[in-house]
Design a protein that fits this description.
It is a single chain. This protein has 183 residues and is α+β, with helices and mostly antiparallel strands. The protein is 21% helix and 28% strand. An 8-stranded mixed β-sheet has the order 1-2-3-4-5-7-6-8, sandwiched between helices. Helix 3 links the parallel strand 4 and strand 5.
Length: 183
């Protein structure tokens, strides 16, 4: 049976099997250390009984007033451990901490618009597209349908403080903003 535990700095020596994936962004060591020192309660690892890393999530708390929220910076599961609900378990813990400890209004994340599998997974977890962010991941040129393949959907899930669900909207796929307009 695997365990869900806090992410430690030494885990950076063990996550190659997780990060070697086309959808996973690998950050600098300083980036991970900043998250681990600033928001350790929003960083978790799913570990196999053998000690092999199965996946991880790193997040942060940010924003002001009704925009105060938890943010999923990275969530990834190694290919050999997918379809075991590990991402759902890690996301649920990050959402719980964002709700109860940080008292956020919502949790958000960014996902490539062409990553249909991840979008479907997030929608199944209760996330809705809030807006499309043009060239969030850079610019590779225009793809199918005249849309940039490096656009991102800003997806959000309201938490208990947002009982009126003001942090989500039904027409989010139609709202397009530039990458410069998001923080």
């Amino acid at each position: 049976m695997s365990i869900l535990r806090p992410f430690k700095a030494t885990d950076m020596f063990k996550f190659n099997n997780v990060n070697l994936d086309i959808w996973t962004e690998t950050y600098s060591i300083g980036f991970y250390l900043h998250y681990l020192s600033r928001w350790p309660d929003l960083c978790y690892v799913q570990e196999a009984p053998s000690g092999r890393m199965m996946g991880y999530v790193i997040g942060k708390a940010e924003g002001q007033s009704t925009e105060w929220h938890g943010h999923v910076t990275a969530i990834t599961v190694a290919p050999e451990y997918r379809r075991l609900s590990l991402a759902r378990k890690m996301m649920s813990l990050l959402e719980l901490v964002s709700d109860e400890s940080y008292r956020g209004f919502f949790v958000d994340l960014y996902v490539r618009c062409n990553n249909a599998v991840a979008i479907q997974m997030y929608e199944g977890m209760g996330y809705d597209v809030y807006r499309r962010v043009r060239e969030y991941y850079g610019n590779l040129g225009v793809g199918k349908g005249g849309r940039d393949e490096e656009d991102a959907f800003d997806m959000r899930k309201p938490l208990s403080r947002d009982s009126a669900r003001r942090s989500v909207r039904s027409n989010g796929r139609d709202i397009v903003v530039s990458a410069h307009e998001v923080s």
